[in-house]
């Protein structure tokens, strides 16, 4: 009997996959695995639904704390934002889920891992590269690259024909991915970039128009780049991100509507809700502006760009990702301090920054009188710094260029 471990969410795609596997892999045993990375109430019905749909077992693996500590915090410390906008909410969770799938497959002696990612998306790459990195002998089954179902509407029809309840309808056909970091919305009317998202699309964040009319201030403390407290209250990583979500969401912070470049070559449009992640990332950037020198901050911006591409592309378990992590950790040695943030109707920015490792010197920067900076020194500096320009200008004049 073939044992197949299925990455199971209880959503449309994975719900129809169980009966499809039973029909197409005669005598197989389907073992559902739900990696709980903060889907909320969605996991409450997963076990019963998986068994009812034909799975022999269903593992619900609590990954929330590990997800925040080992996946979200490193991405925030790296300042990794894909294409300058996307905070990598889906991509950040996939390596950890792949790890859980491999662990269950090894425990159960399964030779196959199955996922519900489409042949057009990024997640197929992320899941499969994670599996290959952790156990290259496990085989992959990807139904969306194999079956005759060609659309989400057809998948809904298939589910109805097999008496499977699914959390989507043809009236609200969005493909959504949720974890403690974000909620994404794709598909349906969003597929046309000319369409403004419907008014009630967001399920976590208040719209900026409906956010409170008074600004809210929040203080976030960091230790070596890791967020450790909000408003003076120390919390576990999971508790802290959940608190940040609560504060930012009610103020309309973290809503992103973007067209992005998928790894597989096409552009896609999605709406992302990442309230707490947006708040923490902006606070972290503000702290780094105080604690990192100019060259390190500049070079780190290049590392951040490459880091975001590696995470987006599913290259989490790679030597380069590990090397960049080591660089980032070095930059965070002095990234300790507190940042006061101001949130107002979708906006989020720092208003005060404090650190024992601050490189800012008020005495040096002041416009008032000081006794440590001799402004005459600037003349020699400018002469030397501008010497190549002067030589080049003389060469051009000599040659009538």
TrEMBL record:
<dbReference type="InterPro" id="IPR024074">
    <property type="entry name" value="AS_cat/multimer_dom_body"/>
</dbReference>
<keyword id="KW-0547">Nucleotide-binding</keyword>
<feature type="binding site">
    <location>
        <position position="122"/>
    </location>
    <ligand>
        <name>L-aspartate</name>
    </ligand>
</feature>
<dbReference type="GO" id="GO:0004055">
    <property type="term" value="F:argininosuccinate synthase activity"/>
</dbReference>
<comment type="similarity">
    <text>Belongs to the argininosuccinate synthase family. Type 1 subfamily.</text>
</comment>
<comment type="pathway">
    <text>Amino-acid biosynthesis; L-arginine biosynthesis; L-arginine from L-ornithine and carbamoyl phosphate: step 2/3.</text>
</comment>
<dbReference type="InterPro" id="IPR014729">
    <property type="entry name" value="Rossmann-like_a/b/a_fold"/>
</dbReference>
<dbReference type="InterPro" id="IPR018223">
    <property type="entry name" value="Arginosuc_synth_CS"/>
</dbReference>
<feature type="binding site">
    <location>
        <position position="175"/>
    </location>
    <ligand>
        <name>L-citrulline</name>
    </ligand>
</feature>
<feature type="binding site">
    <location>
        <position position="86"/>
    </location>
    <ligand>
        <name>L-citrulline</name>
    </ligand>
</feature>
<dbReference type="GO" id="GO:0006526">
    <property type="term" value="P:L-arginine biosynthetic process"/>
</dbReference>
<dbReference type="Pfam" id="PF00764">
    <property type="entry name" value="Arginosuc_synth"/>
</dbReference>
<dbReference type="Pfam" id="PF20979">
    <property type="entry name" value="Arginosuc_syn_C"/>
</dbReference>
<keyword id="KW-0436">Ligase</keyword>
<dbReference type="InterPro" id="IPR023434">
    <property type="entry name" value="Arginosuc_synth_type_1_subfam"/>
</dbReference>
<feature type="binding site">
    <location>
        <position position="123"/>
    </location>
    <ligand>
        <name>L-aspartate</name>
    </ligand>
</feature>
<protein>
    <recommendedName>
        <fullName>Argininosuccinate synthase</fullName>
        <ecNumber>6.3.4.5</ecNumber>
    </recommendedName>
</protein>
<dbReference type="GO" id="GO:0000050">
    <property type="term" value="P:urea cycle"/>
</dbReference>
<feature type="binding site">
    <location>
        <position position="116"/>
    </location>
    <ligand>
        <name>ATP</name>
    </ligand>
</feature>
<feature type="binding site">
    <location>
        <position position="118"/>
    </location>
    <ligand>
        <name>L-aspartate</name>
    </ligand>
</feature>
<dbReference type="InterPro" id="IPR001518">
    <property type="entry name" value="Arginosuc_synth"/>
</dbReference>
<comment type="subunit">
    <text>Homotetramer.</text>
</comment>
<dbReference type="InterPro" id="IPR048267">
    <property type="entry name" value="Arginosuc_syn_N"/>
</dbReference>
<dbReference type="GO" id="GO:0005524">
    <property type="term" value="F:ATP binding"/>
</dbReference>
<feature type="domain" description="Arginosuccinate synthase-like N-terminal">
    <location>
        <begin position="3"/>
        <end position="165"/>
    </location>
</feature>
<keyword id="KW-0028">Amino-acid biosynthesis</keyword>
<feature type="binding site">
    <location>
        <position position="272"/>
    </location>
    <ligand>
        <name>L-citrulline</name>
    </ligand>
</feature>
<feature type="binding site">
    <location>
        <position position="122"/>
    </location>
    <ligand>
        <name>L-citrulline</name>
    </ligand>
</feature>
<feature type="binding site">
    <location>
        <position position="184"/>
    </location>
    <ligand>
        <name>L-citrulline</name>
    </ligand>
</feature>
<keyword id="KW-0067">ATP-binding</keyword>
<feature type="domain" description="Arginosuccinate synthase C-terminal">
    <location>
        <begin position="174"/>
        <end position="391"/>
    </location>
</feature>
<feature type="binding site">
    <location>
        <position position="260"/>
    </location>
    <ligand>
        <name>L-citrulline</name>
    </ligand>
</feature>
<dbReference type="InterPro" id="IPR048268">
    <property type="entry name" value="Arginosuc_syn_C"/>
</dbReference>
<keyword id="KW-0963">Cytoplasm</keyword>
<dbReference type="GO" id="GO:0000053">
    <property type="term" value="P:argininosuccinate metabolic process"/>
</dbReference>
<keyword id="KW-0055">Arginine biosynthesis</keyword>
<feature type="binding site">
    <location>
        <begin position="7"/>
        <end position="15"/>
    </location>
    <ligand>
        <name>ATP</name>
    </ligand>
</feature>
<feature type="binding site">
    <location>
        <position position="126"/>
    </location>
    <ligand>
        <name>L-citrulline</name>
    </ligand>
</feature>
<dbReference type="GO" id="GO:0005737">
    <property type="term" value="C:cytoplasm"/>
</dbReference>
């Amino acid at each position: 009997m073939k044992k197949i471990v299925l990455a199971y969410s209880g959503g449309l795609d994975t719900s129809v996959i169980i009966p499809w596997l039973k029909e197409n892999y005669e005598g197989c045993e389907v073992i559902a695995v739900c990696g709980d990375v903060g889907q909320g109430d969605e996991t409450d019905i997963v076990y019963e639904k998986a068994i009812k749909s034909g799975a022999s077992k269903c593992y619900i693996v609590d990954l929330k704390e590990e997800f925040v500590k080992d996946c979200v915090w490193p991405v925030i410390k790296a300042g990794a934002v894909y294409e300058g906008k996307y905070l990598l909410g889906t991509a950040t969770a996939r390596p950890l889920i792949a790890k859980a799938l491999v662990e269950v497959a090894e425990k159960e002696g399964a030779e196959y891992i199955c996922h519900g990612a489409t042949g057009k998306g990024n997640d197929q790459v992320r899941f499969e590269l994670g599996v290959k990195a952790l156990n290259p002998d496990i085989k992959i089954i990807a139904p969306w690259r194999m079956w005759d179902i060609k659309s989400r509407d057809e998948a809904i029809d298939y589910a109805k024909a097999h008496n499977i309840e699914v959390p989507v309808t043809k009236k609200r056909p969005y493909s959504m991915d949720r974890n403690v970091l974000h909620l994404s919305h794709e598909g349906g009317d969003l597929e046309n970039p000319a369409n403004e998202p419907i008014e009630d699309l967001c399920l976590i964040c208040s719209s900026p128009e409906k956010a409170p009319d008074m600004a809210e201030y929040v203080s976030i403390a960091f230790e070596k780049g890791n967020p450790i407290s909000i408003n003076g209250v120390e919390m576990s990583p999971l508790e802290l991100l959940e608190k940040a979500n609560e504060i930012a969401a009610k103020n309309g912070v973290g809503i992103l509507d973007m067209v992005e470049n998928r790894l597989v070559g096409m552009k896609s449009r999605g709406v992302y809700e990442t309230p707490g992640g947006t708040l923490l990332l902006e606070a972290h950037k503000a702290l780094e502006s105080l604690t990192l020198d100019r060259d390190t901050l500049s070079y780190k911006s290049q590392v951040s760009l490459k880091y975001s591409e590696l995470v987006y592309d599913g290259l989490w378990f790679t030597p380069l990702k590990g090397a960049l992590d080591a660089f980032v950790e070095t930059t965070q040695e002095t990234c300790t301090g507190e940042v006061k943030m101001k949130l107002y109707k979708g906006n989020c920015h720092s208003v005060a920054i404090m650190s024992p490792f601050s490189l800012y010197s008020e005495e040096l920067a002041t416009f008032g009188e000081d006794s440590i900076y001799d402004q005459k020194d600037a003349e020699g500096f400018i002469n030397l710094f501008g010497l190549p320009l002067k030589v080049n200008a003389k060469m051009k004049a000599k040659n009538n260029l």
